[in-house]
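Example (one chain per record):
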Amino acid sequence: MASIQQFEDLVLWQKSKDFTIKIYKLTEQEKFAKDYGLKDQIRRASVSIPSNIAEGFDRKGNKEFIQFLHISLGSLAEVKTQLIIAFELDYMNNENLEMLNQEIIEIQKLLKGLITYLKKSQLKGSKFTT
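Predicted structure:
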């Protein structure tokens, strides 16, 4: 197994980045695109997920990284809520909602798993090795 040297190596970051791209494409569709408030809010929340993973990773300390992962979890819940609202406004169909919800569940599991791992880890980040 390859070691993780940068945030781009994290499967969690890759999946959350790909999820964000899907949200951007979804919000380009006609009905969604016209709702500027919801479109902008869901885009900001979705891009916050991989962005906070990256920022936390580069802080180099587990405590800070965990804090940023929790922010990503909050943003993920925000996106889920906004997708439900978009569905109820007929901006998307049930199939798209279910597909995106499955991705949310997967990303949530990865986030929680990494948080648990970091809390138990004896390695506390490069800040604490010198």
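Caption: The mean pLDDT is 92.
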